[in-house]
Amino acid sequence: MGFRSVLENCPAKLTDSDRRIGFTLLSMQEEVPVFTAAQLAVRADVHESTVIRFAQKLGYAGFPALKEDLVADLDERRQSREVRVRLKSEAYQLDSVVDAQINALRIVRQTVRQETLDAAAKALLGAERVILLGYGLMRPLVDFMERRLTRKGLRVLAIRYDGSEMIETLMALEETDGLLIFALEEQFQSIAQLVPELADRPATVLMTDDAGLMLRRLPTHLLAVPGRDRPAVVGLFMVLSYALGGSIAHQLSTAPGGRGSARRSRPDN
């Protein structure tokens, strides 16, 4: 399954120390093959026994088994990075551009499960209104989803800027509102500090990078993609947005009656 998938699907509650260990592992994967539990403990500022308990909490027999999964994840990422480097040097060739997109799609398919995507789509469909939030690099994603959801008949409110207007809107959310947030981990951290109850809403969907797996309070629906290169991550967000919109369209078209069937005649995007 891989360390990242195990971490994402861990049913146990993670402590602050666990989150420090997890974030450290995600940020230092290149060094993992030569790291011991004791060295990781120093880097994460925890006791070595806490590292062992963290591994066992995730279902591993111990730290060596966890490290095996991390090394496997690292090998996969290294192969993907080598492909990207080669493709970048050949970016003027159509075949290389197509191969780059195929590589990005493969990464998304391996890191986000279809049932996770479908559950997020179902949560948004169950809301009376969908709030879209994304600023900076995320604004094109908000534009895309606003058009897609509006054409499907959903009530949509788009927030494209941070600041007081965003905070006021979020604090005035109704219980029946759904929320789709496009944000890198540090962006969501700053938003959640101002409006901490966002993560507890049943219809909150967060699309973020894999550092978001270490958030203190995870939203109900988390769509996390790997990577630290911001433009590349935004590109993966777009792939996920297409898939999320497709899942919403499919659920609307197959609904036996009620709210979904009333929208079947809406034009597709």
Automatic annotation (TrEMBL):
GO terms, molecular function: carbohydrate derivative binding; DNA binding; DNA-binding transcription factor activity
Keywords, in A-Z order: DNA-binding
PROSITE patterns: HTH_RPIR
Cell membrane recorded as keyword: no
GO terms for biological process, alphabetical: carbohydrate derivative metabolic process
Domain HTH rpiR-type positions: 1-77
Name listed for the protein in its UniProt record: DNA-binding transcriptional regulator, MurR/RpiR family, contains HTH and SIS domains
Biological source species: Rhodococcoides kyotonense
